[in-house]
Amino acid sequence: MLGQRRKLILIAVMNLQQLFVMCLFLITLITTVSSLTQEQENDRITALPGQPAVEFSQFSGYVTVHKKHGRGLFYWLTEAVNPQDKPLVLWLNGVFYITEEFLSFIWLLCERPGCSSIAYGASEEIGPFRIHKNASSLYLNKYSWNLEANILFLESPAGVGFSYTNTSTELRNSGDKRTARDALKFLKEWMTRFPQYKNRDFYISGESYAGHYVPQLAKKIHNYNKNHPGSFINLKGFIVGNAVTDNQYDNIGTVDYWWSHSIISDTAYKSIKSSCNFKSTKYTEKCDNAIDYAWNNEFGEIDQYSIYTPSCNKSSVNVTSTRLKNSLMRRRVSGYDPCIEKNAEKYFNRPEVQQAMHANNTGIAYKWTACSDELLENWKDSQFSMLPTYKKLIAAGYRIWVFSGDTDSVVPVTATRMSLSHLDLTVKTPWYPWYSKGQVAGWTEVYEGLTFATVRGAGHEVPLFQPKRAFLLFQRFLAGKNLPKS
């Protein structure tokens, strides 16, 4: 009896010891989490002005990517409702747009970035909110991609949107290489601030000139992981839409699209094809003249990013800058509201919005704009072809999807198909129509290492024109499943 009592006392003591150790562990954990999340709390968005009630958390702020030169990149994280169960997806915009100075194939050959992921990706395409015309309130996007993942929008490179550099000359010598380096630096620093995402499944996404940004960053991460196994970024793959891929094949495919969609005449088509050497980095005067003629005399006042929807009328745009004065020659969003871009420019210039987002805290000496003229006109290095990068990443086994809205004439479906065809990939699942709600949503073909899909009736910004189809595409990409055949 006495022995049994001693045994019970011993068990009780052991339980108390275990309880004590557990309490110490919990105290340590709480202290650690508290110290780690203080920066997160500083970046927390309580609510945006005019925002409807939501069940997910938002964070935004700056990450310094170069202390000496004072380069800071601005981000906006819109978490999923249950963020711990969802992957992390980085969205990059690279929408390049057309200026009077590039009324020839130079604008295709020297595709340039300079547009904001917050203006486009977050506010018009995949983000949780849309901006009302009066720019005083927001409404929900029922096809927001943060229903499936934690979405991290990055304004990149420095000089785009709220991202900045204190070394003004950097706005005149930016390029692909620095942009990729800064984006990798951003991710490493950001994941230190948000350690809960360090080992999370990670994907990169974007559109247009992000056809450079996304695979270039993926390659940077791939090389970084090989050399720094202790600081692993858990990259699983990437998905890009209407992506600038290869200058030679993109240009050929673009001219073919113009002609096959009756935008230019047989005469102009033959003149361009016979005058222009698409392999060259410079075009002759004869080539320029052929392009200029088609552009000035045959295109008409259409939205080249969505050829079947209304363009933004000059009179409906506030022409207060060089970029807006040339609105018909530059990026204009079309769709149900062809002038939707100006809603973002009004909203994100409101002081109370910037305060809520912890933005512009360095006092940027210019208004927030959707795109940067200075970056556009001074981009220094642009990789001629992304195909070698694709080959390396395919060989490494990443999940890679490329999609294309079929009413875009700037980076058209024919351009993307022609570029990808030169990867010479083996077909796994032959070309077939895919469906959404009983309707053909596009066409797709699955290769060894890459999936290509078109989105029917979508322009350059696929999620803007076909949000439901884009959402289904995104769901299938994350799940690693082919698009539905019925």
Report on this structure.
This protein has 486 residues and is an alpha/beta fold. The protein has a domain at 58-250 and 380-479: Rossmann fold, CATH 3.40.50.1820. It contains 16 helices and 13 strands. The strands form two sheets. Strands 1, 2, 3, 6, 7, 8, 9, 10, 11, 12 and 13 form an eleven-stranded mixed sheet that branches. A two-stranded antiparallel ribbon has the order 4-5. Strand 4 and strand 5 (138-140) form a beta hairpin. Helix 4 crosses helix 5 (210-227), helix 5 packs across helix 13 and helix 7 packs antiparallel against helix 8. The longest helix has 42 residues, at 2-43. The radius of gyration is 25 Å and the shape is globular. It starts with a helix and ends in a 7-residue tail after the last helix. The model is unreliable at 18-36, 98-111 and 315-336 (pLDDT under 50).
Please state the second-level CATH architecture of the domain at 58-250 and 380-479: 3-Layer(aba) Sandwich
- Described by the principal axes of the CA atoms, the overall outline is globular
For the secondary structure, the number of strands is 13
Rg (CA only)? 25 Å
Helical coverage, percent range:
25-40%
| Proportion of beta-strand residues | 15-25%
Q: According to CATH, what is the class of the domain at 58-250 and 380-479? A: Alpha Beta
Mean pLDDT, rounded to whole units? 86
Helix segment tally: 16
- Distance between the amino and carboxyl termini: 74 Å
Major sheet summary line: 11 strands, mixed
CATH topology of the domain at 58-250 and 380-479: Rossmann fold
Helical/strand content category: alpha/beta
Q: Would you identify the regions where 5 or more consecutive residues have pLDDT less than 50?
A: 18-36, 98-111, 315-336
H/E element string? Answer: HEEEHHEEEEHEHEHHHHHHHHEHEEEHH
CATH superfamily of the domain at 58-250 and 380-479: Alpha/Beta hydrolase fold, catalytic domain
